[in-house]
Amino acid sequence: MNRQRASRFIGIDLGGGRGKTTALCELTLGADGGANVTALNHRAGAEPLHDDALWSALAHADPTTTVVAIAAPLTQAACERCPRPTCPGTADCEEPSVAWMREHSGKLGANAGTLGAGLSRVRPLPYLHRATELHTVYRTQLLSPSSLSGAGVSIRGRALQVRRRLAGRGFVMNQSMIEVSPMATVAALCGPVDARGYKRDADPWRTRALVLARFEALRFAPTSRFAREEVLQSDHRFDALICAYTAYLRQHQGWQIPVEFADFADDDGWIWTPPSEPRKS
Predict the structure, then answer these.
(1) Most confident stretch, 55-64, 223-232, 265-274
(2) Does residue 2 form part of some domain?
(3) Residue 81 lies in a domain
(4) Are 220 and 238 in a shared domain?
(5) Residue 143 carries which DSSP code?
(6) 120 pLDDT exceeds 70?
(7) How many domains does the chain have?
(8) How far is CA 171 from its chain centroid?
(9) Buried b (16+ CB within 10 A) or exposed e, 19-45
(10) Which residue from 21, 95, 125, 252 puts its CA 20 to 30 A from 215's CA?
């Protein structure tokens, strides 16, 4: 996959349409190849980042120099996007992601006991699950099985609208527009304890500070003003920063979609995370 080298990385922790839980962070590529935090927003003036305000904040994003990383599902499950008037059933479905689920259904969840999920197996459901989610939960174990319940209806609908609007501006799925998971990125880089703790610890400020201290390439530019303190105080702003940093690492380290998912990742989706080897039971 050919990618134009970006100099700007925008992370969005996408909340519902009212915008109160939406945050946006912008990183720019430094002369030394590091990532500089240059902007952090959870409001547009006096307004929260509802649809119009969010789009205004993205108005000057150029798909030739910018990658937008969004913490929300940018695709639908196979059955949701299926154009067929009748269903042949999962066993006979020719959709590539459904075929992948059939092939791996007996293996997924075999090691779920190590996650403390109380599950020994998972039954992939093509009207509910995406292959990338199953891979991230049961293979690399960067997300917990509870994440399979998915984002709320309003966030999923909003994410699909954002994807279509960005596509209208020239952004391309899995190139200049990507889906990410802040929790999965933190789990890959810092471990599952920190991934849970930066939201749930009695003192999440300290956990977030420890996580940021591990990101040697990340710096807060003078123009970002009090961004570091804002990141430490808010999990939504912290997540927006992790989204942007994930996009930066993806370019800096040259991540690729695994071959087994490459043919259907644009349709079924791909959650970009730091590369992790599948864990064994």
Answers:
(1) 265-274
(2) no
(3) no
(4) yes
(5) S
(6) no
(7) 2
(8) 16
(9) bebbbbbbbbbeeeebbbbbbbbbebe
(10) 21
Tell me the residue range of the domain where 72 lies: 8-76+150-272
For every residue of 154-169, DSSP letters joined together read HHHHHHHHHHHHHHHT
Highest mean pLDDT among 33-37, 41-45, 51-55: 33-37
Instruction: Please compute the mean of the pLDDT values over residues 150-166 and round it to a whole number.
Output: 89
Q: Which stretches of 55-195 are assigned E, i.e. beta strand?
A: 66-70, 177-180
Q: To which residue do tokens 């980042």 refer?
A: 49
DSSP 2: -
pLDDT digits (tens, 9 = 90+) for 203-246: 889 999 999 999 999 998 777 766 888 888 889 999 999 999 99
Put simply, whether the predicted model's pTM sits higher than 0.70 gets the answer: yes
Residue among 266, 267, 273 nearest 180 (CA): 273
- Same domain flag for 51 and 108: no
Domain match, 162 and 239 both? yes
Pair (178, 239) in one structural domain: yes
Three state DSSP letters for 7-74: CEEEEEECCCCCCCCCEEEEEEECCCCCEEEEEEECEECCEECCHHHHHHHCCCCCCCCEEEEECCCC
Question: pLDDT of 44-59, one tens digit each?
Answer: 666 788 888 899 889 8
DSSP helix/strand/coil, 113: helix
CA–CA dist 52, 41 (Å, integer): 14
Place of tokens 């093509």: 126
Among 37-41, 43-47, 155-159, name the one with the lowest average pLDDT: 43-47
- Same domain for 255 and 218: yes
Q: What does the alpha-carbon distance between residue 7 and residue 222 come to, in Å, rounded to a whole number? A: 18
Cβ contact 155:20 at 8 Å: no
Tell me which DSSP letter residue 135 carries: I
